[in-house]
Structure formats: structure tokens, C-alpha cells
Design a protein that fits this description.
Oligomer: single chain
CATH architecture of the largest domain: Alpha-Beta Barrel
Structural class: alpha+beta
Bound molecules: 4'-deoxy-4'-aminopyridoxal-5'-phosphate
Helix content: 10-25%
CATH topology of the largest domain: D-amino Acid Aminotransferase, Chain A, domain 2
Radius of gyration: 19 Å
Number of domains: 2
Mean pLDDT: 96
Strand content: 25-35%
Length: about 290
């Protein structure tokens, strides 16, 4: 078992100062723990620089807004805190977790007066999925992404991950690495922590992100594909089309671009397009290439 996350060396920035890692704690009567009033970001640093840092900070601020609160710092201040936290970690390649939550003043559905807390932690990070080009094995999730009228689906909010964890656990129990979630209409949506793309006849197809995150990596993958003159079609994709695609990959800050070899009964061969985009993404995050404007 890897070292637990609450028992490590180092520092975590919390509410205005760096705290020794093991002392960065919240009380059990914290609103976020009971009512999921928390939001977070998952970011990566490569060679000492946080990839798309500003967009992640802006998304955190926007997630706060969607949940009805404001971050206790400005986006510019958050940028500074993340940079400092990365430097203090001494890591070049790392995962950055910035998160905010409602505190303990009120412990009911209403929590209008609760203090908004903010923390930033940085830890070492390798590949989310080992041996990428082999492609991961996915199954079908039982849970569906809710409608925008049922949940604040454009916030990266803790509560929305309840069905992701349930789906991922079920997939892992059945011997798979991840699960494909449909949305409330029965359309193909995304993986449990990443967006999804399919390849057919030279073009990429990806669902319209109208009830799940329009991932920063998803947007990057579209730009990388466009730079290679690969057409990207954002459209409704129904599950009965899954057998018509040749390649498939998922995108996310943690997953980066990871080819998919299988979704339940359907198989895909991680091929030229997946490999080119996996390599382009790696070159981009390590600043060896720039996306043409
Ligand atoms: N969907 C879900 C459910 C996620 O957790 C993530 C990861 N944040 C994504 C999509 C991809 O988002 P991004 O590329 O911005 O990391």
C-alpha cells in the first residue's frame, strides 16, 4: 500500500499559510464532509511548470460561483499560491490539488454563514494508467450523468463524483480500469474522470459537453487534432455506434491522453491517431511544441 495521503512529509497551503503536511486537518463537523459543499481542481506540473494553471484556477473560481460562494482569494493570488506550493514541494513533475469548501459555523442544509476554506497540496505523480499505448479496458457504468436541471454539472464539485466513484469501483471489481458513463438521455458522455473521443474514417467524434465538464485536456486535444488537420466532430453519440469506431481515447489532466482498447463488448486498436496525439500532448506539456494559433 502506498503511503496514505494524510501521513506524508512536506507542506500543504491551507487558509493563508503553509502547514506541516500531517497537521493540515479539518474538524469532523465540517459542512463539506456532510453536504459535499466542496470543489476542487486536479492539475499537473511538468518540468516545474503547471500546465494550463490559469485555466484551472479560473475553473475553481467558477465552480465556487456555481455552488454559491466565492473563493477567499483572487485568481491571481491562487496562481501565486500554487506556484509557491509547487516550489516548496521541490517537485518538477507533480499533481496539484487546489480545493475549497464550506466550514463548520452551520451544520444543516443551509450554510450561508460558513467560512470558505482553501487549500493547495502538491504530490508526486507518475502515469495515471501504466503502459498507455496498450490501451485501457473499460466497461459500461450503471450510473448516468445527471441533467443540468438535476445537478450543477459544470462545476468540478465533490458531490458529482459520488456516481463516478461508484462506477469506477464496480468497473475495477469486474477487472476493468474504468467505465463509460452515459448521460440522462442515454447518450455517450464520458469516463469516470476523463472525457472521451472516438475515431472513424479519419475524423474524431466526441460528445457535446452539455452535462459534464468540458475538460481542459479535451479542449487541448481538439486543438492538437486540428493542428494535424484531423477533423473533430462534436455531436450526440449513441451507444449503438460504439462498434463503428476504430480508435478511442480518453482525456483528462490526470489521464492525459490515454488510448482505450475495450469498452465492454467493443474493441479498439490504439493506432496512428491516438499515438500521434499522445506524443503531441507530451511534447506540448513539456513545452517542446506550441499549438499554432
Ligand atoms: N470529466 C470528469 C468527470 C473529470 O473528473 C475530469 C478531470 N478533471 C475531466 C472530465 C477532464 O477534465 P480536465 O481535462 O480539465 O482535467
Amino acid at each position: 500500500m502506498a503511503q496514505p495521503y494524510d501521513d506524508r512529509d512536506g507542506y500543504i497551503w491551507i487558509d493563508g499559510a503553509f502547514s506541516p503536511w500531517r497537521e493540515a486537518k479539518v474538524h469532523v463537523l465540517t459542512h463539506a464532509l456532510h453536504y459535499a459543499s466542496s470543489i476542487f481542481e486536479g492539475e499537473r506540473a511538468y518540468g516545474g511548470q503547471i500546465f494550463e494553471s490559469l485555466r484551472h484556477s479560473q475553473r475553481l473560481a467558477n465552480s465556487a460561483k456555481i455552488l454559491g460562494f466565492e473563493l477567499p482569494v483572487t485568481v491571481e493570488e491562487l496562481e501565486h499560491i500554487k506556484t509557491e506550493a509547487l516550489a516548496k514541494s521541490g517537485l518538477e513533475n507533480a499533481y496539484i490539488r487546489a480545493f475549497a469548501w464550506r466550514g463548520s459555523e452551520m451544520m444543516g442544509v443551509s450554510a450561508q454563514d460558513n467560512t470558505i476554506h482553501l487549500a493547495v497540496a502538491v504530490w508526486p505523480w507518475g502515469d495515471y494508467f501504466a503502459d498507455k499505448m496498450k490501451g485501457i479496458r473499460m466497461t459500461h457504468a450503471d450510473w448516468r450523468r445527471p441533467s443540468p436541471e438535476t445537478a450543477p454539472c459544470h462545476a468540478k464539485a465533490a458531490g458529482l463524483y459520488m456516481i463516478c466513484t461508484l462506477s469506477k469501483h464496480a468497473a475495477e471489481r469486474a477487472g476493468y480500469q474504468d467505465a463509460l458513463m452515459l448521460d440522462y438521455r442515454g447518450q455517450v458522455a464520458e469516463a469516470t474522470g476523463a472525457n472521451i473521443f472516438f475515431m472513424r474514417d479519419g475524423a474524431l467524434h466526441t460528445p457535446i459537453p452539455d452535462c459534464f465538464l468540458n475538460g481542459i485536456t479535451r479542449q487541448t486535444a481538439i486543438k492538437l487534432a486540428n493542428a494535424r488537420q484531423i477533423e473533430v466532430i462534436e455531436r450526440v453519440i449513441m451507444p449503438d455506434e460504439l462498434g463503428t469506431f476504430s480508435e478511442c481515447f480518453i482525456t483528462g489532466s490526470a489521464a492525459e491522453i490515454t488510448p482505450v482498447a475495450e469498452i465492454g463488448e467493443f474493441t479498439y486498436t490504439p493506432g496512428e491517431v491516438s499515438e500521434a496525439l499522445v506524443n503531441d500532448y507530451s511534447d506540448l506539456v513539456y513545452r517542446k511544441i506550441k499549438i499554432p494559433a
